[in-house]
Design a protein that fits this description.
Layout: H1 2-54, H2 56-59, E1 78-84, E2 87-90, H3 99-111, E3 116-119, E4 124-129, E5 132-137, H4 139-174, H5 176-214, H6 218-245, E6 253-256, H7 257-267, H8 269-274, E7 278-283, E8 288-291, H9 293-309, E9 316-324, E10 327-335, H10 341-344, H11 368-378, E11 382-388, E12 392-398
Parallel strand pairs: 7-9
Antiparallel strand pairs: 1-2, 1-5, 3-4, 4-5, 6-8, 9-10, 10-12, 11-12
Helix pairs in contact: 1-4, 5-6, 6-11, 7-9, 9-11
Length: about 400
């Protein structure tokens, strides 16, 4: 339980941190990209305006602008291209661009659907306007942008790693009181169960003596029934307490799940017959698993007992063992029997029973399925439940 709570704490905290940091990272990267785009679009518009209003060929026939004229020039490196009779020609002669490159990028810019854009593979931005095309060489700026984005990303990943380590430390510190309370509760359950076991054994023994001396009667039978139910409850509590305290796995050996399921199904056949239930057995032969025979027998007994208890007269119980995806699977289905969705998530909780079955006629204290789930867990298996109105309720153990 504590490990589950710790995992949930880490998962929730990391999920929150991941969402917040991802939003911050995405906002930063998008902001940088948009600022980069705004810069080169502004520079391109300025270049087109300068070319139109100041006639660069007239003012600067062979040298770059000087003095106040430089104020009209964008800070980014750029070249302006104009359409001539023999093709595209360079309007800013202080920038060296060979003729082939000039014609290639000019034709490429004219073929683009957008009048303004950026070619990341070339590091060039372009803008078309009134028979002119402005180009800006943004290779340095693009390299700086890429470095910035990689820096942000690496910082993001490093921060996630740091927060993950912190969440592990915080989970241990935060859940320490819960862990201490849980351990005290488990010790109390274990100790109380052990202390109750001896006097209960004495009580049942005395009831047997009274019955042998005075004969059978209604009050002795009622006392024995309640005593046996209490004994079963104590045994179940001890099993769960030991399972929570145990850090070692159970001893396992190869055994036939097919034979064990057949044996238990036949044992419950008379009970099903008494309630006029149909018991179908569909077991594939020679399916083996690694496990503890007594515990698996207890698991099957719990599931079969529940199926017999909660299947109405004339209902059908199906016990099936087969291979699913090259792994043995045990399923016990009872029809008609329907469990509402709101109850399914709590069926394996300790002491949980549906309101509709909280009566003495059914017996039990809501620990059976908890024990079955614990036995499945000890065997590395997964116990799940499915229920619908058409097929009834199925308990499935996947090994």
């Amino acid at each position: 339980m504590i490990k589950t709570l710790r995992r949930k704490f880490i998962l929730i905290s990391m999920l929150l941190v991941f969402v917040v940091m991802t939003v911050v990272l995405a906002a930063g990267l998008i902001s940088n990209q948009l600022q980069f785009q705004r810069d080169y679009e502004s520079a391109l518009r300025l270049e087109l305006a300068v070319d139109q209003h100041f006639k660069l060929r007239q003012y600067f026939p062979s040298t770059p602008p000087t003095g106040n004229q430089r104020l009209f020039r964008p800070r980014l490196t750029f070249t302006a291209i104009k359409w001539g009779e023999e093709g595209w020609e360079l309007r800013t002669p202080w920038v060296e661009v060979d003729e082939h490159t000039l014609q290639t990028i000019s034709s490429k810019a004219m073929a683009e659907q957008e009048s303004m854009g950026f070619w990341s593979d070339l590091g060039l931005a372009y803008a078309r306007g009134d028979g002119r095309i402005a180009f800006i060489n943004l290779q340095n700026e693009q390299a700086q942008l890429n470095i910035s984005q990689w820096t942000w990303t690496l910082t993001y990943l490093a921060a996630l790693g740091v927060f993950f380590l912190l969440s592990i430390l915080l989970s241990r510190w935060t859940l320490r009181p819960v862990e201490r309370a849980w351990q005290q509760q488990q010790r109390f359950v274990s100790d109380a169960s052990h202390e109750l076991r001896t006097p209960l054994t004495v009580i049942l023994a005395n009831l047997d003596i009274l019955e042998s001396e005075q004969g059978n009667n209604l009050w002795l039978n009622a006392a024995r029934t309640e005593g046996l139910m209490m004994k079963k409850l104590i045994e179940n509590l001890l099993f769960l307490a030991h399972a929570d305290e145990s850090l070692q796995g159970i001893p396992k050996q190869a055994l036939s799940l097919s034979d064990l399921a057949s044996e238990m199904a036949l044992a419950y056949e008379p009970l099903a017959f008494e309630k006029k239930q149909i018991l179908d057995i569909n077991i594939q032969a020679n399916l083996k698993v690694q496990g503890d025979k007594d515990l698996l027998r207890q698991l099957l007994g719990i599931l079969l007992d529940n199926a017999v208890k909660y299947t109405p007269e004339g209902g059908r119980i199906t016990v099936e063992v087969k291979m699913i995806r090259e792994k043995p699977q045990l399923s016990i289905r009872n029809t008609p029997a329907y469990i509402e969705k709101g109850h399914l998530d709590h069926l394996f909780d300790r002491f949980y029973r549906q309101d509709s079955v909280r009566n003495k006629s059914k017996g039990g204290y809501g620990l059976g399925l908890s024990i079955a789930a614990e036995i499945a867990r000890q065997h590395g298996a997964n116990l799940k439940v499915q229920s619908n109105l058409e097929d009834g309720t199925s308990f499935i153990v996947g090994f």
